[in-house]
Amino acid sequence: MSRAPQVAVMGGGIGGLVAAGLLARAGSRVVLYEQESRLGGKAQQIQVRDTVLDTGPTLLTLPALVRETFAALGAEDLLPRFVRLSQQCQYRWEDGSGFVVHADLAETRDSAEALAIDEGRGVESFYAAAAAIHRAAGEPYLEAPFDGVAGFLGRVARRGPSAVLQGLRMTTLHALAARHFRDPRLQQFVGRFATYTGASPYRASAAFALIPHLERVEGVHHVEGGTGALVTALEAAARRLEVEIRLGTRGTWRRAGGSWLAGPAGDEAPVDAVVVNADPLGANGISGEPLAMSGYVLLLDAPVRSCLPHHSVLFSRDYRREFDEIFSGRVPAEPTVYVCHPAASDPGMAASGTSGLFVMANVPAMGEAFLPHTEALRARCVAAIEALDPSLCGRLRLLAERTPVDFQRQGAPGGSLYGFLPHGRFGPFRRPRSHAAPGLVYAGGGTHPGGGVPMVMLSGRFAAMQVAADLEARA
Question: How far is 80 from 70, CA to CA, in rounded Å?
């Protein structure tokens, strides 16, 4: 191909920005279309007075992968600083009991032992099992674009019989938790990691134990300035690589006469490849597929500096009931509430003597049917925060909120934050493939390898690899 390949990227989320930058650096002429007025996709940020809050992802794992991505973009100089949290998350229950996960495994074990006698040994055995799951399934899942079960199983087999046996013994995440912890509160702690993918721990694969393993080994980090600072850095990298970014422009694509046409509706032009940074289920108008959970997000500030750590979770009393309600299409009567207080580690996220809080509860992917529940759920979330930090009672101020309706308007099917529902023993491996057709590749949390900032970055890297292979095949 004598001329520079022409590539259209539809959507300026993290995955789209990474793919666009890498393809531009490899010599393609890239045009990125973003229907909103700013980039980032779900990774948005707001500022009200001196309070800065992310409205999407609030933590970072796998920092080495993020650094590698910026190095591949030639943009290491743009990368924000990462703050590694020594206290990764505090877990609380309504009876006043608590458990804290630390970067140091011995401290985590001591916290579990203080919660329930003899559960310190469970911490050690659980994390050992999680490490084995990561070696057997996580590493082969993340090391290459997913091209079907056969290719994945081949990568597993190359790790030896023990890896294959590990896969055959895979149970649900809850069953794995029950194998290592007798105390139901610590079983809830393990089960929470299924929610990272919008799933129920009672129906999701134990493969998701690789998430707490990676958090323990690689650490839980905060991006200085918030995840929004990472989006700003990616935008700067893409522009420096001469990616043409068209904000406020909805891009479309179609196949015509053996070629791809892409661009604004009615003004499409021939291109050599298209990267779609959108959920495949929503982008293809697929209906009837079971969807992963959505979320209700509340953004608050207070005229006092809270004593809350960076990450807190107040668990519901009946976890199984909570997920039964969600996957029956009902807003849970007593939701688990997650709270992020970024100023605990990054004082610049709020003015001195004040706090900003990101609050989230899991809800069904129910679109506009959620709206009648907004006020009651807001009140329950505020009550949960006040229980975690009584100094905030009566002092919280509403800045903004996000509901399944907002996510649906962004293109998420039914408002689902995660799209594909990975229930079942091999659920994670049935995620929609990124390589949809020659010259058409998906990137983002709805495709392989899944959600979360590093995974979405990896999807962008895989998308660029697959486009490059398609272009080479055509040359």
Answer: 10
Query: Is the residue at 238 inside a domain?
Result: yes
Amino acid at 137: A
Residues 429 and 283 occupy one common structural domain: yes
Q: How buried is 97 (Cβ within 10 angstroms: 0-12 exposed, 13-18 middle, 19+ buried)?
A: middle
- Rounded CA gap, 293 and 424, in Å? 15
The tens digit of pLDDT for each residue in 15-65 reads 999 999 999 999 999 999 999 999 999 999 999 999 999 999 999 999 999
User: CB–CB of 436/463 below 8 Å?
Assistant: no
Question: C-alpha distances in angstroms, 367 versus 254, 329, 413?
Answer: 27, 11, 8
Task: Write out the residue range of the structural domain in which residue 142 sits.
Answer: 101-218
The one-letter amino acid at 290: P
Residue-wise pLDDT for 329-380, tens only, equals 999 999 999 999 999 999 999 999 999 999 999 999 999 999 999 999 999 9
Question: Residue 64 has what pLDDT?
Answer: 96
The reply to whether omega before 428 is within 30° of 0 (cis) is: no
Please give the tally of structural domains in the chain.
3
pLDDT at 163 over 60: no
Distance between CA 80 and CA 433 in Å, rounded? Answer: 31
Rounded alpha-carbon distances, angstroms, from residue 414 to 15, 361, 407, 453: 21, 17, 8, 22
Instruction: CATH number of the domain at 436, please.
Output: 3.50.50.60
- Does 330 share its domain with 260? no
Residue whose entry in the numeric block shows the structure tokens 């809270």:
306
